[in-house]
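Structure, all four chains, one model.
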Amino acid sequence: MNSKPATIKEIARRLGISPSSVSRGLHDHGSIGSAMKEKIRTVAQELNYEPNQTAIFLQKGKTHTIGVILPELSESFFSSAITAIEDIANKKNYQVMFAQSHDDEAKEKLLVEKMKSHRVDGLIVSVAKSTSSYEHFTKLSSQNIPVVFFDRIPSVTNVHSVACDMETGTIQAVQYLLKKGHRAIGMINGPSNLLASTQRKEGYIKAFGSQRLKYDPSMIVTSDLTENGTLIAMEQLLIIKRKPTAIVAFNDYISLYAIKYARKLGLVINKDIEFVSYSNLPLIHYMDHIPSASVEQHPYLQGQKAADMLMDLLSNKDTEQQGFYRVIIESELVENRTGGIL
Amino acid sequence: MNSKPATIKEIARRLGISPSSVSRGLHDHGSIGSAMKEKIRTVAQELNYEPNQTAIFLQKGKTHTIGVILPELSESFFSSAITAIEDIANKKNYQVMFAQSHDDEAKEKLLVEKMKSHRVDGLIVSVAKSTSSYEHFTKLSSQNIPVVFFDRIPSVTNVHSVACDMETGTIQAVQYLLKKGHRAIGMINGPSNLLASTQRKEGYIKAFGSQRLKYDPSMIVTSDLTENGTLIAMEQLLIIKRKPTAIVAFNDYISLYAIKYARKLGLVINKDIEFVSYSNLPLIHYMDHIPSASVEQHPYLQGQKAADMLMDLLSNKDTEQQGFYRVIIESELVENRTGGIL
DNA sequence: ACTTGCTAAACAAACGTTTGCGTTCACAAT
DNA sequence: ATTGTGAACGCAAACGTTTGTTTAGCAAGT
């Protein structure tokens, strides 16, 4: 009952043969008699033999484990993404070792060290908001441990990455509103140091351009992504003489904050003012007053691509690395159906 | 740049001493000269030495890794719980290897095997809904790999577990409604094979008993936890001559389905009918029409206790096991503030 | 009878570390 | 001069596996 797990050695001892023969017998590997092979198999069965992976890891120098570091599991974006990563990894017989940085750069660095010392074969990372330097990652790559970034990717170019292009989705979103007849379209954008903010702004401008309309720069305001910052942004928008009849919000949360504020002012959603945002959170489906459309960022797909990329890097580890993978996923506007009674 | 990571052997070679001395030097372990110790340390620094955990794992027979298997990461309950587990584990220098069963028993079994072959030191599990046999887990325990169950725990007694007692929370919930003057209180319960359902029913009955009131058995109906099943349950409740003025719903989702239905019938929430449920999901805080209170199940705390328990089992692995840990956390009613404008 | 060639198995080294047990040496105590 | 003591280190085994290199045995070809 409390016996140590069976080993190859034990099997060898029982059969009076050498461990190496047992190993070969179990692997169809080298030269081994089919009679003996059978015997080995049956004894292995009897003893309930399972290979000790730690020994194999040491021997092969691989752990068949990939590390995943991401900011917050409670964000549904990331829980979808990691589910995808897990699925792919499992399919390829890899295990996932994961940890959350909680958007703390120091913690992130610590985790990278831990992962390294656990000898993960590769790493998938979505960096913390506060992360400003990337040496801890480049150190990994230089030690031949591939790193793939996704969604929140460093602004440097010499890394492998998967990300979603917000520009196309934004163009779709604005065109969607234009087609509906809106002309005064506000945008609540995020902090300007984020690539995602730049892309949203670009998309906004291009959408207007594509219809040969010109846009009002004062219609683009910035929120620090808190509820309060969003209220301030809304005030800025609603002060404009030509009041916006539609607003593109940075994400669904921002949208909900803004909607709440608009309703407080007595505005009727989708009548006086319409919202479009990003993320397409599941919680939307339980609510009455929601953005009429949302730009989907495909978290599952991003996770999938990132995992595929890492798997590819791992299997071609020996062959000389040439350049860096850089996958861009197109974001995509989807219309929302409310889950409420309205 | 692309060099193999430094090893103890390499350090030993450079200093012309034996690997064992290096090991001791790095660990303050056995007898080692302080001068030599210094030299060892500096060389280790220079070479950027990091111990190869896989070798240590093999040598020590421990991986300092715990496995976590749970049904769905996208449920906020579980993402909180695993965050707690991760926090505790990290504090004790353990890494987390995790996987989702997606409520599929076959997948769960597979995962257990994978975890075992990766030689996790212990396992924390919240079992899949469909899981009916537990041999795959008992096999682990018998191999001296401790297993701790949390939240969804097997109905057998010879396991370690952490769970939340729904009865006390239910008593609080019903008493809360009684105190508010409600007398016709409905309950939408879950499938009767769940322990959690039994506890809810018991709590309901006890709460009435404690006020020397008697309850109407037809007030307790069952939902299969889908939206449609919940509508049927609502119909059953609203058919009763003495219509319920308040309803205790199995969880927040059920509550939201029920609220949606009630509103469709023109009922005004918290006036014509009041809801109380379980889970205390974050999404509640964004909505207008919500249960006025919710029974908190303390996912973070459950994860914490489960991790603590496992850590304890791991550190006392050698000492003979006597009995099983069984921690019960009291559920607790918390009043909700709406995040909407109402 | 002697090389060849083949199969089936053993041998041994290796992966990187830890650790019990020696060994050596210097020096103090007898 | 002998013994004891302790410090500082080396040796070697061990963890469980894989894998390149023998070796042994045996049948077939010359």
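Chain B touches chain A through 50 residues (CB under 8 Å).
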